[in-house]
């Protein structure tokens, strides 16, 4: 030290005040980090849940599409051949199709698909009647 500068004297009271202030700032920073990490985890869990729900809806939509193609093929076979054996699988699988379609509407984005898709008869609020 030079003689121009006097020795820096920190008395015990000032030193404790500085330590307490630094300790408080450290705790505040730690609390901020913990809060940030908690928010990140919550957002991640929410997005993971939405992704899984979206996958489930996609799988149900694919199953409905496959069942519709099977029904279409059975009806076409019946119309071409008028053989009741061609339409028998369509009649037997109708309950599975209805269950799958109902679960798609129930799971589909909390009912958001219902006003957009009307695949079941009677689901339209006002039935459309073709002019004669």
Task: Please tell me about this protein's structure.
By secondary structure, this protein is mainly α. The protein has one domain (17-111). The chain has 3 helices and no strands. The chain has helices at 12-81, 84-92, 94-107. The longest helix has 70 residues, at 12-81. It is rod-shaped and about 115 Å long.
Topology:
Layout (H helix, E strand, L loop, with lengths): L11 H70 L2 H9 L1 H14 L25
How far from one another are the termini? 108 Å
Secondary-structure-based class equals: mainly alpha
Helix content: over 70%
Largest sheet: none
What percent of residues are in strands? under 5%
Shape: rod-shaped
How large, in whole angstroms, is the Cα Rg? 34 Å
Helix-strand sequence: HHH
Quaternary structure state of the chains depicted: single chain
**Domain count:** 1
Mean pLDDT: 77
Quick recap of the structure?
The chain has 132 residues and is mostly helical. It has helices at 12-81, 84-92, 94-107.
Key descriptive features of the protein:
mainly alpha; 132 residues; disordered C terminus
